[in-house]
Backbone:
């Protein structure tokens, strides 16, 4: 290393501050309650007086109990149950009566004067009755203010029961009921308006909450006349799977990506939003570039709070951009030895959100080219410093060795270099592929030269197609970025010597004269046990116990 580089490195080997998010936005994160977003919007509600028929679904456990003993039932009650269809003329339960025994709810139509609160032009609530109050025409002071409306009444009439609030006549409190408007004879113009809050913690089939302070007409202590009293009202309204998916699609449109409904992971293309060290490390997005969600079917909601959302690359090509950015951030804060940096890459690439892309760690030269694109910045010198540390490691564990293309391989000399002329108890080779005759031939030669009782090959089951040397065993692993590289590991008394190998076992092939000729430039780099991938460390521990 030149003197000028050394001088610059002295400044960069000090600890540096963590980078701040590029967009500088404040994070708004909700507790880990399983909900994806906390949404809200203001809804205008209005009170419309109407003369008509409202059907209430009332729970009648008294009738349910009476039906269990038909013999002692009074004739007058039987006549009523016959009239409403629970009994037939033979005093037997009808199909409707059988259904009532399981769910004792009666549909009770009621004709009269009502004040009904509806949302005003809300795409989700539509014409759902929010609150219903029976009006005493003799006591109400509001009748003189009623004006007939020209609104078409068909949109208020429904066949399906909906959850609503019914104002009780005793103390003007709210009672949850299911009701539907069957018929409207006269509909009046609004006599009251208010603002309500519609809130939703977005989750599959989780209800929305509507809250408002409504002016409720209350009869004044049994006297003629009434007063208006402010009352806090709350109503839960069922959501649907379609609504949940619509909200998630709204998020997808904002992020220009995809949403996996099974994992709740958003697959998004690389952008400045992703280009943040913590975001890439955690694969979670804590700052969103939008504050509203808009859907055609359910309208626009404000985002009050949200958790950090899980993200993953949009595609295989896009994943390479994520890796390049992650490596850039890796070297921003510190310098790392090559082995440590590759281990960090393997650990990151083994995350479940990335493993299926089958990416491989970026090599030293590619990293330096990447970091030097915009000039030799701090990240570049951190990377260069880390790569300069490897020779120090080599002096302790053997020098890095590169074989020449076209040279004749002397296996014994190679093994002497890799083992420092020590007696080897056993050997382990990690190589995904063991398919060719050349691989089989070189492994047999290595086994014969070592003179050990056996060894272990760690490989993929789908790529194991040759016969192992006598005494050698195999262990299969699943394909992942962590096991992309090849390793030769020697078990020596009280010591393990490990090497990372740049080529598979077919780098040397027999010639017509039975010599082994080298193809390419296979490189053997020393590596410490603690810097080996986790899966290999586990195999080493297990294999070491077998050797004892």
Residues:
């Amino acid at each position: 290393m030149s003197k000028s580089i050394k001088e610059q490195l002295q400044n960069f080997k000090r600890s540096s501050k963590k980078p701040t998010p590029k967009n500088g936005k404040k994070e708004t994160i909700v507790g880990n309650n399983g909900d994806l977003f906390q949404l809200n919007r203001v809804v205008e509600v209005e009170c419309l007086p109407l003369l008509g028929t409202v059907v209430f679904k009332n729970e009648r456990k008294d009738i349910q109990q009476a039906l269990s003993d038909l013999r002692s039932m009074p004739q007058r009650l039987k006549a009523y149950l016959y009239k409403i269809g629970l009994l037939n003329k033979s005093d037997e339960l009808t199909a409707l009566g059988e259904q009532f025994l399981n769910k004792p709810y009666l549909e009770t139509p009621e004709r009269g004067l009502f004040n009904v609160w509806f949302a005003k032009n809300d795409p989700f609530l539509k014409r759902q009755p929010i609150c219903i109050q029976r009006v005493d025409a003799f006591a109400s002071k509001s009748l003189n203010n009623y004006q007939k409306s020209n609104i078409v009444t068909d949109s208020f009439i429904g066949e399906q029961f909906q959850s609503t609030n019914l104002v009780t006549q005793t103390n003007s409190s709210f009672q949850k009921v299911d009701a539907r408007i069957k018929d409207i004879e006269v509909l009046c113009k609004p006599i009251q308006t208010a603002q309500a809050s519609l809130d939703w913690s977005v989750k599959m089939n989780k209800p929305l909450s509507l809250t408002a302070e409504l002016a409720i007409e209350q009869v004044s202590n049994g006297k003629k006349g009434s007063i208006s009293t402010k009352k806090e009202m709350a109503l839960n309204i069922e959501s649907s799977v379609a609504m949940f998916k619509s909200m998630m699609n709204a998020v997808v449109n904002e992020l220009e990506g995809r949403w996996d409904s099974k994992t709740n992971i958003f697959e998004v293309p690389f952008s400045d939003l992703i280009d943040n060290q913590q975001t890439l490390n955690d694969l979670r997005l804590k700052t969103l570039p939008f504050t509203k969600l808009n859907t055609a079917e359910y309208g626009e909601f404000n985002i009050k709070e949200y958790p950090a959302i899980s993200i993953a690359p949009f595609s295989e090509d896009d994943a390479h951009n994520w890796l390049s950015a992650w490596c850039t951030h890796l070297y921003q804060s510190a310098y790392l030895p090559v082995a440590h940096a590759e281990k960090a890459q393997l650990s990151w690439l083994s995350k479940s959100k990335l493993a299926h892309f089958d990416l491989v760690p970026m090599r030293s030269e590619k990293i330096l080219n990447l970091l030097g694109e915009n000039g030799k910045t701090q990240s570049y010198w951190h990377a260069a410093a880390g790569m300069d540390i490897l020779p120090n490691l080599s002096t302790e564990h053997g020098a890095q060795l590169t074989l020449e293309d076209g040279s004749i391989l002397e296996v014994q000399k190679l093994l002497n270099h890799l083992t420092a002329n020590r007696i080897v108890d056993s050997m382990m080779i990690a190589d995904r592929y063991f398919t060719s005759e050349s691989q089989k031939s070189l492994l047999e030669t290595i086994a014969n030269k070592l003179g050990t009782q056996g060894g272990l090959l760690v490989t993929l089951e789908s790529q194991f197609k040759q016969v192992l040397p006598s005494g050698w065993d195999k262990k299969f692993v699943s394909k992942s970025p962590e096991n992309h590289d090849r390793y030769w590991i020697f078990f020596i008394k009280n010591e393990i010597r490990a090497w990372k190998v740049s080529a598979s076992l077919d780098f040397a092939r027999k010639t017509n004269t039975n010599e082994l000729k080298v193809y390419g430039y296979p490189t053997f780099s020393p590596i410490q046990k603690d810097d080996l991938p986790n899966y290999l460390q586990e195999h080493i521990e297990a294999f070491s116990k077998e050797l004892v």
Observations:
- The first strand starts at residue 38 and ends at 59.
- The CA atoms of residues 194 and 269 lie 43 Å apart.
- The first helix runs from residue 3 to 12.
- Confidence is low (pLDDT under 50) at residues 1-34, 389-397.
